[in-house]
Design brief:
There is one protein chain. With 426 residues, the chain is an all-alpha fold. It is built from 20 helices and 5 strands. A 3-stranded mixed β-sheet has the order 2-1-3, with helices on one face. A two-stranded antiparallel ribbon has the order 4-5. The longest helix is centred in the first third of the chain and has 42 residues. It is globular and about 75 Å long.
């Protein structure tokens, strides 16, 4: 275990691992087994590979186990849509309920089992104290860009939701570090982006789904560090580096009550979004795609108001390979990133009894290179409205606006570069 900037919160009163000091007797604070596990998890050579293996296993299990209930939900959604249309016939109201609300919200609900499984494992890591070890492993990397390892803890929280992560960064004492950490948090892949990752990884990279997921999470972390490195050399954030003490909780077995309380809170937030923001977004998307009516019937989708909005964006997104439907999906991600999946459920619905991933793959709208570009764009482009509002309240509207502008520009550049490279390789 690295002796630098480490302090254990044991009860012996001797566990002060500062620079140049000796380790205390591990038996005074915990069993030898726990001590050895701790040293293994935080080993400078093995710690990061262990973290990678754990994340790969979690993502692989999320896809494998979650696939069964996901297929059942998708089949139920398709059956319900058919039942509604058979029972109530044609017209705008049955179309609104079946093609809009049920198909759009159902596309997001289908990923609820995956969300539950992922948060179950992540909560296990968090409640056991391992997440703090992961932050400790990143301590040296964070110091390389002039930040302390404690700045990584709010970033870890950002994998759940960016809003509480930004709020948790208020505990960072240095104002410059606090502001920079808050600006780095939107790079983290929050749970709202997860359904988009799951959908496109399943559709276009079925053999490498877990690797695609890890790649997106790692890409967000790496780009956030590079962003911090650049910002630390500007006049707003340049400062003398301070050497702080890092605090680790003791390793422990998670309590089942607390564990499922954490999972429920996150799943409840997901369901609340479905019944509020995403429901409203699906109704709006359906209406824009259904109208204007011609001869008492809905106009073809390519002639709808929605298509006009998407084509208006095409000059900016054509180099990325995005068509008008993908442009609309990007736009609907502003209130909530989950709305991207519900929008795809509406726009790429071909009426067949098949999964949304299969519908996407057979639509011809994407290929592998464009899927990679779209995933990276979703990872990096401006955060949701709630995150922007939180940034504005904590560090001012100018920094919030800066976050929107620089993330959108970075998303375009990275997506363009990734598509160009992928087209040459794939």
């Amino acid at each position: 275990m690295d002796k630098t900037r480490y302090i254990c919160n044991g009860n012996c009163g001797q566990c002060r691992y500062k620079r140049g000091s000796e380790f205390c007797n591990p038996d005074a604070q915990e069993s030898k087994l726990a001590y050895r596990i701790d040293r293994l998890l935080t080993n400078r050579w093995l710690g990061l590979p262990i973290l990678f293996v754990l994340l790969f296993g979690i993502f692989e299990l999320t896809f494998t186990i979650g696939a069964y209930p996901q297929r059942l939900i998708e089949s139920g959604v398709d059956s319900l849509c058919v039942l509604i249309k058979d029972s109530f016939g044609s017209g705008w109201l049955p179309s609104l309920v079946a093609d809009g609300i049920v198909e759009g919200c159902g596309a997001v609900i289908a990923f609820l089992p995956n969300i539950f499984i992922l948060f179950f494992f992540l909560s296990l890591l968090e409640d056991s104290g391992y997440m703090a070890r992961a932050a400790f492993l990143m301590d040296k990397l964070m110091h390389a860009v002039g930040l302390h390892g404690n700045s990584f803890i709010p970033m870890l929280v950002g994998f759940g939701c960016n809003v509480p992560a930004i709020m948790s960064a208020r505990s960072i004492s240095n104002p410059k570090d606090r502001t920079l950490t808050m600006l780095m948090i939107p790079f983290m892949s929050c749970s709202a982006r997860l359904p988009v990752y799951l959908l496109l990884a399943s559709a276009f990279f079925p053999k490498y789904k877990a690797l695609v997921m890890i790649g997106l999470y790692v890409t967000g972390i790496v780009l956030s560090v590079l962003f911090a490195l650049v910002m630390k050399n500007t006049r707003w954030f340049r400062k003398t580096q301070e050497d702080d003490i890092f605090t680790l909780p003791a390793l422990r077995l998670p309590e089942s009550g607390a564990l499922f309380a954490h999972i429920w809170e996150r799943c409840k937030d997901y369901l609340q979004k479905i019944t509020t923001v995403i429901l409203a977004a699906t109704v709006i998307i359906w209406a824009l795609g259904y109208f204007p009516m011609k001869g008492g019937e809905s106009a073809p989708q390519d002639s709808s108001y929605l298509a006009a909005i998407g084509r208006w964006m095409e000059p900016a997104t054509a180099p990325l390979g995005f068509d008008w439907k993908m442009n609309v999906c990007v736009l609907t991600g502003l209130p909530a990133k989950e709305a991207i999946v519900s929008t795809m459920g509406i726009l790429y619905n071909n009426g067949e009894d098949a999964s949304l991933a299969l519908k996407l793959r057979e639509s011809g709208a994407f290929d592998g290179a464009e899927a990679i570009a779209f995933l990276l764009f979703v990872l990096l482009y401006f955060p949701c409205i709630a995150t922007i509002r939180t940034l504005s309240s904590q560090i001012g509207w100018k920094w919030a606006l800066f976050s929107v502008v620089h993330s959108l520009a970075l998303a375009w550049v990275v997506a363009f570069a990734a598509r160009t490279i992928a087209m040459a390789v794939i």
